Amino acid sequence: MPEAFSTRHSDGDGRFLILCDHASNYVPPELDNLGLPPEHLTRHIAYDPGAVDVARFIADSLNCPLVEAGFSRLLIDPNRGLDDPTLIMKFSDDIIIPANRGVDRFNDLELWQSRVDKYYNPYHNAIAAALARAEAQEIAPIILSVHSFTPVWKDKPRPWQAAVLWDRDDRLRNLAISHMGQYEGLNFGDNVPYSGRLKNDCLYRHATHNGFAHALIELRQDEIAQPKCVELWGTRLVALLQQAAGDCEMTVRRNYGSCCDA
After folding, report:
1. Containing domain of residue 80, as a range?
2. CB-CB contact of 186 with 211 (8 Å)
């Protein structure tokens, strides 16, 4: 059984922290693919294809810490709060998840708590530990979370090649919009196809309430389907983070709060 998380460069450059919440499609064998045909675990409903490859490229290039989840988002979603009804998905992209039907705090609390204890908490504890190491060095790390999204949703093509998601702290968002503007013809979105304003999600928990500059980058999956494309996007994001590290406003803690708390 894989660990609930894995790390790279834990003692590397603490000015940056890379996260990949949906890195893996792993489901323990005893859960029998959560009752799904095996091919469904290769789809976006189970993980973010390509995201971890980009996250690893960035971390390796910068020699900076990376924390990646080692389990499928269908098992439990580390980018949701414990109070979120989609923490353990019962239905995703028109697919019923049979083994998840009764897994919540109101029906099967024991199984719900087991997934929290075995997978969710260890991943978040690993992120907290990485932040504690940076704090011990008096560093306020810039946090970048890497995700991917499908090119088409509900038969509607998504035009954005990539996007930045953010809440109230717009430091890294503003730089990302400016930085990506230099690439001619690039359709780079702003808080699409999702919003970065989600209470108790991963960045809300570890970045917003700690005052660290942060953003979530969404990459369209066909943009990162080949190794050369992973390198292209990884290189762009490395350059973005290097630029951010040269801005003194990015490297201090600022409490912007969250739109979710208004």
Report:
1. 5-261
2. no
- Write the burial class of residue 121 (CB in 10 Å: 0-12 exposed, 13-18 middle, 19+ buried): middle
Backbone angles phi, psi at 163, to 5 degrees: -160, 160
* 21 CB-contact burial (10 Å; exposed 0-12 / middle 13-18 / buried 19+): buried
Beta strand extents in the chain (DSSP E only): 5-8, 16-20, 66-69, 91-92, 95-96, 142-149, 152-153, 156-157, 162-165, 188-190, 214-220
CATH code where residue 50 lies? 3.40.630.40
For 88-104, b where at least 16 C-beta lie within 10 A, e where not — what string? bbbebeeeebebbeebe
Tokens of 158: 């998504």
State residue 68 phi and psi, 5-degree precision: -125, 140
Q: Count how many domains the chain has.
A: 1
Nearest of 127, 258, 262 to residue 195 by alpha carbon: 258
In angstroms, rounded to a whole number, what is the distance separating the alpha carbons of residues 102 and 199?
A: 24
Say if residues 237 and 50 touch (Cβ distance below 8 Å): no
Query: What is the C-alpha to C-alpha distance for residues 80 and 88, in angstroms, rounded to an integer?
Result: 9
Q: How does pLDDT run across 166-194, given as a tens digit for each residue? A: 999 999 999 999 999 999 999 999 999 99
Degrees, nearest 5: CA angle 29-34-36? 110
pTM above 0.90, yes or no: yes
